[in-house]
């Protein structure tokens, strides 16, 4: 019995391999739990009840209200500037009611009242020019041409997005890499155990021959 136990004792290299395998298994599981609770679950909720539609611009306007944004001019240099609020009202192929267009879900959460948030510049005039350029783009270049937009009837029935922040590729990668990490860890542990078992059997066969 003592000889059998000694035969199955792992060497230092095998012990390190087992530890690495268990570490990867734990990392994969924790990553899945963390992403599921903090990111994947809200992303799926945002996508639930949503879909794509064809949008047509109804009106493009600037409101008199201005909003604050934070600009950075260096490592320890930050300040506040303001930009005008641009609203792009569209009609979707799913509903005749007008909806407010947003760049994506992040922009919608940052400022649900406006359709566009310019890159925050130190000069308010530069921010205004960026918004005016975007206004001309929607009026002159897009005009009445239909384009694809995205909506979520359950969460934001009166808003549509130009693009999705959480598309299928991002969701796939968030699920894929933790699973790959977990499987690699399992594979390392299984191969180490199998290699040790084969080595012990080979040693036993060798002793029997002698």
UniProtKB/TrEMBL annotation:
GO CC annotations, alphabetized: voltage-gated potassium channel complex
Keyword check for Transport: yes
GO MF annotation, one: calcium-activated potassium channel activity
Protein name per UniProt: KCMB4 protein
Example GO biological process: detection of calcium ion
Any Pfam family hit: CaKB
Organism of derivation: Hylia prasina
Source species, domain of life: Eukaryota
Statement: the UniProt record of this protein carries the keyword Transmembrane: yes
Compartments (UniProt record): Membrane
UniProt keywords, alphabetically: Glycoprotein, Ion channel, Ion transport, Membrane, Transmembrane, Transmembrane helix, Transport
PANTHER family according to UniProt: CALCIUM-ACTIVATED POTASSIUM CHANNEL SUBUNIT BETA (PTHR10258), CALCIUM-ACTIVATED POTASSIUM CHANNEL SUBUNIT BETA-4 (PTHR10258:SF3)
């Amino acid at each position: 019995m003592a000889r059998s136990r000694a035969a199955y004792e792992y060497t230092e290299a095998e012990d390190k391999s087992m530890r690495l395998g268990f570490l990867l298994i734990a990392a994969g599981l924790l990553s899945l739990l963390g992403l599921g609770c903090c990111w994947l679950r809200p992303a799926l909720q945002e996508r639930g009840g949503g879909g794509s539609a064809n949008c047509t611009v109804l009106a493009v306007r600037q409101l008199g209200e201005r909003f604050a944004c934070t600009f950075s001019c260096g490592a320890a240099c930050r300040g506040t500037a303001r930009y005008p609020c641009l609203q792009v009202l569209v009609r979707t192929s799913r509903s005749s009611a007008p909806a407010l267009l947003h760049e994506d879900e992040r922009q919608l959460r940052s400022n649900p009242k406006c359709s566009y948030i310019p890159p925050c510049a130190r000069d308010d005039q530069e921010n205004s020019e960026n918004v005016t350029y975007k206004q001309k783009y929607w009026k002159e270049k897009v005009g009445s041409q239909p384009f694809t937009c995205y909506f979520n009837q359950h969460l934001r029935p009166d808003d549509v997005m130009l693009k999705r922040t959480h598309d299928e590729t991002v969701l796939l990668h968030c699920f894929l890499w933790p699973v790959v990490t977990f499987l690699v860890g399992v594979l390392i542990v299984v191969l180490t155990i199998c290699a040790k078992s084969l080595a012990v059997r080979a040693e036993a066969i060798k002793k029997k021959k002698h």
